[in-house]
Hints:
There is one protein chain. The protein is α+β, with helices and mostly antiparallel strands. The chain has helices spanning about 10-15, 35-45, 60-65, 85, 115-125, 145-150, 155-160, 205-220, 235-245, and strands at about 5, 25-30, 50, 70, 75, 80, 95-100, 110-115, 135-140, 165-175, 180-185, 190-195, 195-205, 260-265, 270, 275-285, 290-295. It is globular and about 50 Å long. The relative contact order is 0.22. The model is unreliable at about 5-20 (pLDDT under 50).
Amino acid sequence: xxxxRHNLSSSFLKAASFHHSSTSPWTVLQELPDGxxxxxxxxxxxxxxxxxxxxLQFYGLPAVTRWFTxxxxxxxxxxxxxxxxxxxxxxxxxxxxxxxxSEGSETVFQRAEAPLQLYLEWAKNATAATRDRLxxxxxxxxxxxxxxxxxxxxxxxxxxxxxxxxxxxNLWMGIPPTYTPLHRDPNPNLFVQLAGHKVVxxxxxxxxxxxxxxxxxxxxxxxxxxxxxxxMMRGEEKRLLEDQVxxxxxxxxxxxxxxxxxxxxxxxxxxxxxxWWHSIKGIDEGVTASVNWWFR
Length: 296
């Protein structure tokens, strides 16, 4: 799918919204009026409210144009990995999630550390129809080669909006469809899309507590909202969480306030406050890649 990036206003937000309609219980996340540090600090970071940074705010990150090809500042087109460049770091160990499923059987889900080259080789021919899938999930930038880290410098919003403390930063890369289940983070989060298209749905702490509680009650237990817990990635808990967040306008009326949705493309970024619940899907064709910084 190709989308023009000119005039990224309300019309773009409506077009980019994932299954969004006038009856949707999800409110399209609005863009900050400008990309200044002061605006970010006063309208997002200090009041701890979600915010979409101005479109293409992070397109200047070197990784966007060095690691990927196919898109541009003006057009959202399917993007692919610059294998010749990233293969130089093929021996770097990264966390990979392996999933596979066949009709009528339970999804197999496993995590393992593996060379980056293993993922790059798989991604060359992977499509949405590929049965055996790999996803690079939460690869800490601190463990990557320095040349890769240099392509992802800490944004000024992270370094200067608060105390400047960076708790962790991570790389995510996959071939859609990709999925991160509903969870919440212990620190504020700047989430930046490097390549491809992701849709993020967010809930306030109270609204997310209600939804997560409903799922745990349905399962007859009181589980943890630990990030990407294995039980969230397969079986009944995965199905229930996904239905609650992505299954249509059937969410409980208790959660109808403070729910936001936003589509992110290459160079876009959002602020997710501490404690806000969120779930993320990678959609469309080509590679999807993101980086995030947890900070204060």
